[in-house]
């Protein structure tokens, strides 16, 4: 009886276990949904110039639109993770897809910047927060040996959509103006609802026990249940806090090129389409970077944390070189540096999330990813406006890219302070702490709802034994 509870659902149904079966369908859903979240977010730089001209506001004020959207996506990720742990992942992702599309549709009717802050920023950001973490955790829980490759394949859609979306958005803006373009993008984002529908609903055979026990719960039991859904105990563990701090520094500078490189290229004298093509070309190498990085890390020749540090150092360096390469007005030099930056930024993204199960264990991955997104949301909120403010002060984007690259390098340095960083082998992930003695009911509630804990706990035990 006990052994049967530890087997993944796919094995119980007679299908192939982790690294196969329905996991590939979920990977396809993640491929589409992430392209409609981060691929779209990366391509909003095309609208940046249009908003500056239409609303006659500073670069800093316009930068708050994308910054609020990014920060909201990360800030509401713990909410998405907690709702998935407590209720149903499928419904949470579908609701997120609906909100993300609704925000863009409402943004097409905006008459002032505040409207864009609330629609493109807050409403769409909330939807993105309900989509990204649950989809990522669902895919990672369905892959073990090829987890980094699966994440790389899923995230490769971001580079592919960046390549396609930048010239497409420029064409939509010229054809339908920015209002019509946002309306079309809102309808396109509703496809996330279909991606969420592909997630299999979790087993809820013990739901009557949960309903009966809720009336008997004390306030302390309720607080502990919420704390468990959010995995708050991770905030007391040094490896998790160190890793989260490093990722937060990455977040200060990582998105700056995607929001300001098009504007920088146009400022130095390149045409609208040539400027948009720079980001499209970087999106192509981004795809190869994600897949190549995931494939190579799964070979096991080097520790993933060491490879992550390598890619972040290179990405930070190329961010600093982006404005330097265009000072002479050379389109070729700017294109080469953009291609190298695209490859390195894609390579590090595959590994940032692949390291997470090694830091906290598979069973705490959903809540841990949500907390990680929440903490780094402050950097996502401030990074782009800081870049816009530096542009307003200096008159160009050189200082903006210099500061952004420096933050990425600082995050790389922070990673080296992780416990056991200089060891040749990965330390075993920490185990979930034991809850209070009288929380038997709490254990019954968490069991059927948190599919990652019940279905994949045996994977974490096997990895620790190795």
UniProtKB/TrEMBL annotation:
Major facilitator superfamily (MFS) profile domain: residues covered: 26-423
Cited SUPFAM superfamilies: MFS general substrate transporter (SSF103473)
Predominant location: membrane
Keywords from the UniProt entry: Cell membrane, Golgi apparatus, Membrane, Symport, Transmembrane, Transmembrane helix, Transport
Keyword presence, Membrane: yes
InterPro entries: MFS, MFS_dom, MFS_MCT_13, MFS_trans_sf, Proton-linked_MCT
GO MF annotations in UniProt: monocarboxylic acid transmembrane transporter activity; symporter activity
Topology within the bilayer: Multi-pass membrane protein
Any one annotated GO CC term: plasma membrane
Superkingdom per UniProt: Eukaryota
Keyword Transport: yes
Gene3D superfamilies in the cross-refs: MFS general substrate transporter like domains
TM stretches of this protein: 21-41, 61-84, 91-110, 116-136, 148-165, 177-199, 240-261, 273-292, 304-325, 331-356, 368-386, 398-422
Localization, UniProt: Cell membrane; Golgi apparatus membrane
Function (record text): Proton-linked monocarboxylate transporter. May catalyze the transport of monocarboxylates across the plasma membrane.
Similarity comment: Belongs to the major facilitator superfamily. Monocarboxylate porter (TC 2.A.1.13) family.
Name the record gives this protein: Monocarboxylate transporter 13
UniProt source species: Cyprinodon variegatus
């Amino acid at each position: 009886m006990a052994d049967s509870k530890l087997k993944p659902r796919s094995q119980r149904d007679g299908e192939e276990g982790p690294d196969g079966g329905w996991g590939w369908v979920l990977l396809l859903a993640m491929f589409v949904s992430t392209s409609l979240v981060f691929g779209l977010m990366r391509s909003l730089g095309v609208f940046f110039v249009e908003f500056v001209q239409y609303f006659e506001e500073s670069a800093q004020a316009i930068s708050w639109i994308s910054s609020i959207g990014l920060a909201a996506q990360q800030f509401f990720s713990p909410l998405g993770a907690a709702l998935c742990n407590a209720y149903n992942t499928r419904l949470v992702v579908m609701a997120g897809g609906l909100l993300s599309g609704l925000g863009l549709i409402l943004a097409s009717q905006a008459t002032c910047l505040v409207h864009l802050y609330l629609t493109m920023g807050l409403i769409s950001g909330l939807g993105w927060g309900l989509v990204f973490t649950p989809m990522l955790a669902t895919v990672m829980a369905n892959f073990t040996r090829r987890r980094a490759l699966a994440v790389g394949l899923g995230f490769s859609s971001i580079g592919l959509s960046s390549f396609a979306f930048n010239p497409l958005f420029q064409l939509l803006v010229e054809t339908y103006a920015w209002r019509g373009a946002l309306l079309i993008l809102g309808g396109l984002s509703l496809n996330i609802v279909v991606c969420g529908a592909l997630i299999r609903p979790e087993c809820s055979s013990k739901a009557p026990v949960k309903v009966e026990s809720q009336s008997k719960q004390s306030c302390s039991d309720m607080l502990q249940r919420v704390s468990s859904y959010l995995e708050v105990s991770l905030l007391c563990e040094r490896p998790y806090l160190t890793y989260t701090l490093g990722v937060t520094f990455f977040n200060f500078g990582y998105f700056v090129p995607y929001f300001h490189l098009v504007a920088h290229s146009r400022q130095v004298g390149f045409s609208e389409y040539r400027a948009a093509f720079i980001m499209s070309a970087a999106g192509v190498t981004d795809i190869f970077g994600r897949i190549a990085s995931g494939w190579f890390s799964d070979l096991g020749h080097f520790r993933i944390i060491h490879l992550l540090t390598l890619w972040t150092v290179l990405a930070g360096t190329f961010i600093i070189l982006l404005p330097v390469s265009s000072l002479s007005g050379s389109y070729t030099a700017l294109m080469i540096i953009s291609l190298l930056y695209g490859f390195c930024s894609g390579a590090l993204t595959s590994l940032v999330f692949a390291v997470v199960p090694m830091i906290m264990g598979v069973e705490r991955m959903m809540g841990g990813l949500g907390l990680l997104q929440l903490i780094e949301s402050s950097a996502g909120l401030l990074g782009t406006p800081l870049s816009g403010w530096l542009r307003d002060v200096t008159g160009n984007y050189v200082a903006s890219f210099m500061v952004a690259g420096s933050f990425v390098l600082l995050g790389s340095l922070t990673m080296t302070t992780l416990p056991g960083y200089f060891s040749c082998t990965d330390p075993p992930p920490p185990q979930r702490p034991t809850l209070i003695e009288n929380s038997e009911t709490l254990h019954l509630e968490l069991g059927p709802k948190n599919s990652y804990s019940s279905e994949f706990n045996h994977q974490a035990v096997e990895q620790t034994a190795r």
